[in-house]
């Protein structure tokens, strides 16, 4: 079964055509700078392809180009669109309306309108992506929506409620939603497989660490807590995002600097975290170099992120009443042996043992167990694969 996975952002449309039976990626690519000047990259599974400037006025035009690249010319991988069995769409926010992936119908799209404003930069282009698919491929090809927030909908009220007047939850649905749910779900399922257990028998902390980062507590296969909050701004320090703060820091800075809510939001989303503390870069690799050269603010930024992760591992183990495995994924989680060593240091009390040699060699997309034989808690690196998870959900729903 061939599933086309679409991830539409505000000015981009990424895609992968996946053979879901054997996980093979037949082709993938990205339409960038949609509505600006337009750039299109397309690659076949064996690494051939092209990159070119092209007019991309909107998501519809981008989608038509994707279909053209997949079906015609030197880098086509299918003979016609009839080989696409279904399309799976990544949707950033489903509010508390969407607790699972769903098959797209007119009714579902109407319901989606009710949560579209939870992610004003991401949900509207995702909807455009779906409309473009239905138009280009026809309604006979089923579309499935897979929500980044859905996995976290199993959190109990004690984990999702904020300590502000309850009426804001009732009126505006202000609560913790979390993000990266598809990644947390994928790696926690894979982790249960590696443990040789059913998901129902496991207690796992999953750390998705990239430019955006979040940590989740997954008890018996269900998310019971997660670090990101109402929006992906909450949680731990990230590349450019502040993560959690004493809320009065926000009002204090706004008053002192005379900053509007919108500008403050921008400051917290784009000028904080690694870049804000270090003044050097939002990229962990740059900070590793700077810290190695003895630049103090770079070290503070990295230490603060690692310390916050360590605290959450402890907190979530307490919340679940135990821990079977700790999982690292995402660009930093899959590659930074320094971060993993820092997080796992002095964690023997919790049952975490750590093999420094395995830690060093498990990078660049490798899966591995970093714990010592016999250790009570396993420490895994599991490269995430959100696209495959989306394809799998699509296959399940399409039948
Ligand atoms: P996104 O959240 O945008 O999907 P990624 O998951 O690709 O991001 O992660 C990007 C982060 O991963 C960057 O901070 C980058 O520096 C970091 N990263 C990638 N490779 C390494 C590495 N070898 N060592 C440390 N950090 C790395």
Q: What's the pLDDT, averaged over the residues?
A: 97
Count of β-strands: 14
CA radius of gyration is: 21 Å
What share of the residues lie within helices?
Answer: 25-40%
Looking at CATH, which topology of the largest domain would you report? Answer: Nucleotidyltransferase, domain 5
Order of helices and strands: EEEEEHEEHHEHHHEEEHHHHHEHHHEEH
Shape: globular
**In terms of structural class, how would the helical and strand content be classed?**
alpha/beta
- Name the bound molecules: adenosine-5'-diphosphate
- Poorly predicted sequence stretches spanning 5 or more consecutive residues: none
Pathway: Metabolic intermediate biosynthesis; acetyl-CoA biosynthesis; acetyl-CoA from acetate: step 1/2
Function: Catalyzes the formation of acetyl phosphate from acetate and ATP. Can also catalyze the reverse reaction.
Pfam families: Acetate_kinase
Binding site for ATP: 14, 208-212, 283-285, 331-335
Overview of this structure, please?
A hairpin with a 3-residue loop joins strand 9 (203-209) and strand 10. The protein has helices at 59-71, 106-113, 123-137, 157-160, 166-172, 181-195, 247-257, 261-270, 273-278, 284-292, 296-320, 330-335, 337-344, 356-361, 386-398, and strands spanning 2-8, 13-19, 24-32, 39-44, 49-53, 86-91, 102-103, 143-147, 203-209, 213-219, 222-226, 325-329, 368-369, 378-381. It has 2 domains: 1-146, Nucleotidyltransferase, domain 5, CATH 3.30.420.40; 196-379, ATPase, nucleotide binding domain (Nucleotidyltransferase, domain 5), CATH 3.30.420. By secondary structure, the protein is of the alpha/beta class. Helix 1 crosses helix 3 (123-137), helix 10 (284-292) crosses helix 11 and helix 11 packs across helix 13. Strands 5-4-3-2-1-6-8-7 form an 8-stranded mixed sheet, with helices on both faces. The protein has a 6-stranded mixed sheet with strand order 11-10-9-12-14-13, with helices on both faces. Bound molecules: adenosine-5'-diphosphate (ADP). Residues 210-212, 239, 283-285, 288, 330-332, 335-336 line the site of adenosine-5'-diphosphate (ADP). Catalyzes the formation of acetyl phosphate from acetate and ATP. Can also catalyze the reverse reaction. GO terms for molecular function: acetate kinase activity; ATP binding; magnesium ion binding. Substrate binds at residue 90.
